[in-house]
Specification:
By secondary structure, the protein is an all-alpha fold. It has a single domain, classed as Up-down Bundle (Glutathione S-transferase Yfyf (Class Pi), Chain A, domain 2). It contains six helices and no strands. Helix 2 crosses helix 4. The chain is flat, with a radius of gyration of 15 Å. The two termini are 15 Å apart.
């Protein structure tokens, strides 16, 4: 991806798709449950949250944080895992600085 200009139409398209998924999580899976499959945390929750937090280093976390129910679910899963969650995502979260530098150089 380095050296290529940012395709803002693609960015807009994928932002819309992520927003649709977040809405679906809210309205279908989290409608009456604290976790995706019911009242207990499952692997589905771990995988779902891991996917969403990948938006953090690219500064797009507002796509899920703007939904109160989904944001609360992410926080609930993270708190259940405690420091292990942050430890296992250190490298992903560390990519934010590289992303900022790359994006700023293309603007």
């Amino acid at each position: 991806m380095r050296g290529r200009p940012i395709d803002w139409e693609k960015v807009k398209f994928y932002r819309k798709k992520v927003s649709e998924v977040v809405k679906f999580l809210d309205e279908y899976f989290l409608r009456e449950n604290p976790y995706l499959c019911g009242s207990e945390i499952t692997l589905a929750d771990l995988l779902g949250v891991c996917e969403l937090v990948q938006l953090i280093p690219v500064r797009e976390q507002m796509l899920y944080e703007s939904n109160p129910k989904v944001k609360a679910w992410v926080e609930r899963v993270k708190s259940r895992l405690g420091p292990l969650f942050d430890q296992s995502h250190e490298e992903i979260f560390g990519l934010g600085a590289m992303f900022d530098q790359n994006v700023n150089s293309k603007m």
